[in-house]
Amino acid sequence: MVGSTGAVIQRNPAGATAYSPGTGHGSSSSNGVPAFKSVLPLEASISDIVHRITQEVLQPILIQSQQPVPPSPFTFTHLDQLQQQLQQRNPGSGSITGTPSRRAASGVAAATAACRSSGAAAAGGLSSRSEGAASDGLSFPSLHPPKAIDSRLLLVLVPHDGRLLGQEALEELARAVAAALNTMQLMTPEERTKCSALPPDRSYETNYWEWRDFLQRKQPTGASLSCVFGRGMLRSLLLCCCAPLLRDLSGGPLGFCCAAVFHRLCDEASLSPASRHAALQSVTTHDATLESFLVSESGLGFLSRDFGSAREEQSGLISFACLTNDRQPLHSMALVAAKNIFSRQLPKMPREYIVRLVFDRSHYTFCLIKKQQIIGGCCFRPYFKQKFAEVAFLAVTSSEQVKGYGTRLMNHLKEHVKKSGIEYFLTYADNFAVGYFRKQGFTQKISMPKERWFGFIKDYEGGTLMECRISPKVDYLRLFEMLNDQQKAVQRAIMRLKPPRVFPGLTCWQKEPNLVLHPSQVPGVLEYGWAPQATTDPGSEGAAAARPLHEQIVQVLDVLARHHSAWPFHKPVAKDEAPDYYEIITQPTDISTMKKKAKKKQFPSKAAFLSELRRMFANCRRYNGPSTIYYKYANELEKFIWPKALQIQDTQEPATVAEAIR
């Protein structure tokens, strides 16, 4: 029959599939190697190239079977195991003759014997090791193109319904190759220049900066490197990252033929044999495996806060595990590592107390693992009858705190406890953790009935009790995708209701560069619903002169209250949250108090309002230390609102206003 590449696919006597180059896309070289010629356009993406290469390498050696032999069509087992499965399903299948499944079994037996013989190599893949060879060493493939492919030494796929699932398996393997390329990390142009052994690459610097721009701009939106870049980026990746790429390929389902895939990738990138040899022989200390190029959580935005860490989880860079003190040595070592992180990140918490809770058998620690090391965790205690869990400690090591790992950790924890019927999280958060927990859906308003939790959780002096309700209808691990889909649906609905229209541009400034137009004179502004505002900003002189003082003050306070860092200043400080607050602060004030006074017209002048506004920020800085989040919020808010407050107009003498400012 004819394969997808235009070549003829035949069966050999052993039941395997032999490959003979067809006249469509391939030709045969003198040494018997199929000399493939790409039919993809020059602008083809890496993903398209990988899919074609995978089919060219693997399609010819796909063994068909009429019976569902393996337990799963995507289970790629060793040849010995597959032979045992075939013989268990088909007793007496040792002879070459017989049904197609028996002939397949005999082909497996021949392949097994060939693999065990000395000097046998799996289809140009990594050089075969002896039984006593180290399993963690990396043997580079031959520097020359692989020899003629012996189809019996490659992969045996026995799909349930023949060719269809075999094609799905090829797609799965192609995605594995693309995933390996997606996780490669380029070294900086300066570092590459120092590596004199690497072959020259004229377009490397351009590709590097395009790759960095992709990590910052396109990857958080769901794009992958293999779908965005083409042959130019593939060439730079192969020249710079061939060693880690081969390591990833050899450790995956394509380990038996990674060299064949590698050389086909080099062919597509137009790498000469000398360049391949130099790339494989180059010695560099650069670790080209995936590292984090993630911006901070505050910069990622709400929709994509954990998207970068989710991509790292998919690539295998990070993983998660829930542990408890079950006396397993490896689990105990992991708990000790988590305990050390809690101790470093929570210096005010007694270490003995941390040890007691982490190793308490009623507590569990949900660990974040990166490169086989614990970099973060959350210690919690579930109360199954009450259907809530208390979060005792949560911390990520300081060097990994700005990459979205904390959000991903909490999302995984929510999905984990949801399986046990947990409906709420409760925790006492200190001043540093309140902002983080608010981002994760926690609130200071406790909606769970008090009789369900009162007396169960530990009370901490100076902490803020916060609650998070876990919705059974939300998949927290796909939160970014769900919200992104909702956003796109809203945008599509808006486009249907009001399709875009193009209005002619303005040319009046060509004759009168200093002309000032009213918004209503701009074409399209009125047509799309613009209307003059009834009120203007407090800084507008005309508005301020026409409006009473108390209305201007209320408007400034409304602007202040809407700031994302103003939540600690909305209401007076509660005594149960800070028992000694009113002993230290003798003249307390807050936004709600000032707003009530303004509505009652109790501010006689602008200076009186400015004085109380400044006192609110001064009180916060006096009670809280410079390292607290509240101290930083006070500075941020004062810098934000003070210019707007100064624009308030009244009849007070300027000297008095200046005195209040001082």
From TrEMBL:
It is found in: Nucleus. One of its GO terms (biological process) is positive regulation of transcription by RNA polymerase II. It is an enzyme of class 2 (transferase). GO terms for cellular component: histone acetyltransferase complex; nucleus. InterPro entries: Acyl_CoA_acyltransferase (IPR016181), Bromodomain (IPR001487), Bromodomain-like_sf (IPR036427), GCN5 (IPR037800), GNAT_dom (IPR000182). Residues 325-471 form the N-acetyltransferase domain. CDD domains: Bromo_gcn5_like, NAT_SF. Its EC number is 2.3.1.48. Keywords: Activator, Acyltransferase, Bromodomain, Nucleus, Transcription, Transcription regulation, Transferase. Belongs to the acetyltransferase family. GCN5 subfamily. PANTHER family: GH11602P, HISTONE ACETYLTRANSFERASE. This is histone acetyltransferase. It comes from Cyclospora cayetanensis.
